[in-house]
Amino acid sequence: MTDVQLLKPSPEESVFGAQPSHRMASTVSAGPRTVLGASRPPMAVWPPLDFALGAFACCAACVFTNPLEVVKTRLQLQGELLARGSYQRHYRGALQALWVVGRTDGLRGLQKGLSVGLMYQGVMNGVRLGSYSYCEALGVTSFHGGSLLSGAVAGALGAFIASPAYLVKTHLQAQTVEAIAVGHQHNHLGVSDAFVTIYRRDGLIGLWRGVNGAVPRVMVGSAAQLATFTSAKEWVSHSQWVSPNSWLTALTAAMISGVAVAISMTPFDVISTRLYNQPVDEFRRGRLYQGFSDCMLKVCQAEGLRGLYKGMGPVFLRLAPHTVLSMLFWDLLRQQTVKDKQGGS
Predict the structure, then answer these.
(1) If we measure between CA atoms, which residue out of 169, 73, 49 comes closest to residue 121?
(2) C-alpha 111: how far from its chain's center?
(3) 110-144 core/surface letters (b: 16 or more CB in 10 A; e: else)
(4) What helix, strand, coil percent values describe the chain, rounded to 5?
(5) What φ, ψ does residue 265 adopt, rounded to 5°?
(6) CA 329 to chain centre
(7) How many C-beta atoms surround the C-beta of residue 207 within 10 A?
């Protein structure tokens, strides 16, 4: 998830610039003058192109953060519906899990599900960022609560459309050798085989299994991130701990935002992973959970509240670099697009 800013930056502005006099429009700081004042700001980038740029930026970030997504999935499935201490713990934290996966599955194991993960990031974030950008250009985010609402709705739309890709990604990232296997093993031969197998067994609707967990997950995460990243960056800049134009400003803001997003999103992330990965019976129903609320109740009963926060370490470790990298790539791409547009006019 990335910071969304729409107005064209001045040529002198740094990618991570946070000085108010040179800032683009903020997702959370628009005042009454923006709402009641003059005209709507012009869109700096053509919306379909903005969609593509947002998708490409998040895909580029995904290449670096996918190993953390693999271990997050494993940690969230470990000890499924079992009381703490009653099962063997193959994974004991983000760093140890990375080492175990790398040692057992090799370097390729750390990038399991990367191709379909890129598909998910491209579609979900392309739709999410493109929709949010359009909402901001329309002035929706200028109203009180508009940023949160736009972020949540855009996130829900992106999550729904990209749900089949997340389903396959979860299946593939959970797959491993029996010695360190956790959760149900679907044993797909690859991305295309997974899509075909699920479609033949469960039909078209089966490709959207688990979407009832994915939509609230992305809504909460998107709203929390979009509401905290920009304000955190402004606070860090005004605190003058580091230079406003330094990349450290964005990194620090991403770390602060990451804490808020990890705390709010991890329970939804755990439920989403469980719903996506559960086996189905001959009637195409989940064998473990009947839906979102049933999954939450069963996890709390069997694993306690701590069960809803499994994998929080890699969730947080992934959020900060993913936010910084995707925001950096998107900002650079959009600025270059605006420069090319100005040069060609």
Answers:
(1) 169
(2) 17
(3) bbbbbbbbbbbbbbbbbbbbbbbbbbbbeeebbee
(4) 70, 0, 30
(5) -95, -25
(6) 16
(7) 18
Q: Which token pair is 284?
A: 């195409």
Return the amino acid letter for 29.
S
**How many Cα atoms sit within 13 Å of 167 on the Cβ side?**
29
Closest C-alpha among 134, 24, 53 to residue 340: 53
Length of the chain: 345
Cα 19 to Cα 230, 244, 256, 332: the distances in Å are 12, 6, 19, 18
C-alpha–C-alpha distance, residues 136 and 43, integer Å: 9
In angstroms, how far is CA 3 from the centroid of its own chain? 12
Task: List the structure tokens of 182.
Answer: 């956790």
Q: Are 223 and 155 in contact (CB under 8 A)?
A: yes
Q: How far is CA 91 from the centre of its chain?
A: 23
Question: In this structure, what DSSP letter does residue 166 have?
Answer: H
Q: What is the pLDDT along the chain (345 residues), one digit of tens a residue?
A: 444 443 334 433 333 333 333 333 333 333 333 333 334 444 556 767 877 887 888 898 899 999 999 999 999 999 999 998 999 999 999 999 999 999 999 999 999 999 999 999 999 988 887 888 788 888 888 888 887 888 888 889 999 999 999 999 999 999 999 999 999 999 999 999 999 999 999 999 999 999 999 999 988 887 787 678 778 878 888 887 777 767 777 778 878 888 888 899 999 999 999 999 999 998 889 999 999 999 999 999 999 999 999 999 998 888 777 777 776 777 677 778 878 777 766
Q: Which pTM was predicted?
A: 0.80
